[in-house]
Write a structure and sequence with these properties.
- This protein is of the alpha+beta class and 367 residues long.
- Among the domains are: 140 residues, Gyrase A, domain 2, CATH 3.30.1360; 75 residues, Elongation Factor Tu (Ef-tu), domain 3 (Beta Barrel).
- It is built from 8 helices and 19 strands.
- It has a 6-stranded mixed β-sheet, with helices on both faces.
- Helix 2 crosses helix 7.
- The radius of gyration is 21 Å and the shape is globular.
Length: 367
Amino acid sequence: MKNTPLTQIHIDLGAKMADFAGYNMPIQYSSITEEHLNVRKKVGVFDVSHMGEFTIQGQGALELVQKVTSNDASKLNVGDIQYTCLPNLDGGIVDDLLLYRMSDDADGLPVFMLVVNASNKDKDWDWIASFNTFGAVMKDISDQTGLLAVQGPKATEILQRLTDTDLSEFKYYTFKIGNIAGIDEAVISATGYTGSGGFEIYVPAEHTEKLWHAVMEAGKDADIKPCGLGARDTLRLEMGFCLYGNDIDATTSPLEAGLGWITKLKKSADFVGKDWLTTQKEAGLNRKLIGFTMQERRVPRHGYLIFDGQENEIGVVTSGTQSPSLDHPIGMGYVPLDMAKEGNTIFIQLGKKLMEATIVALPFVKI
């Protein structure tokens, strides 16, 4: 397994560690529920340095990004961030990612940073490179980059103690480059995977430990807690955010997954999978990703089958957990479009039993 710059700190703090995407990562420190609720009510900090970061710049950079991503990168100004995905040739998803419009290079050409899922780094790099007939310069900066996510309603107050950059001026999905905790050229990004507000901060890998200690010290009086990937997963699921490998993958189209808003079929660029997705939209979807709540206390898990009221198998659970905020089980899964209406009753197979569930609107938790 690989380590992040903070692996030894997690071990010293007594975190439960596990292999995640080839990295030795903290799953939890105290309990997933405690860490989850601290992010919702106060603030928590996550080491997400395992994520992948690529830059694309120079002649043809915009053309390459437009070719491989579903959203419209031509709309981005410097300082903007865009959620997007890499469609495959059959309308599925290679990965979902964040796209940063960085400053122009010395020749006035755009520079982009792509932040991809750790488990997909090598696959994504090869996929993007296979379409680089535009002369763009690609660079993998993953190993040189550390990344902390400081999330929760007190995140802005705490981080403001460490930087002269006015964090109150940030709009969601924008970033600035500034000094934080004495570290120059940090990317301070108003993003996150929890739905509770906060920032993600990119720094050179050698400064990650310095940033961690500064953030933890600044947040002492706000009861800041280190948080693991377990809480990150329950937080994202309460918001209905998709997890690659569970809710989206090479066989699920972004339209089926409720990501039509990042799939710009009318953009002028002829992106990968555009024709397939256009045909799917015109023909109509056969299935849709839905959220559901359980009537009993049993927790649905990835891979559990979904049935209708006549005991016909109609779909599969993609994500499920006991919601710490709601104190009852929630989940997501794909069902036929005609069954996907809010309020409909479905049944989840748990062992030999079919347990009743109700389709609900996403997100599960309104912040």
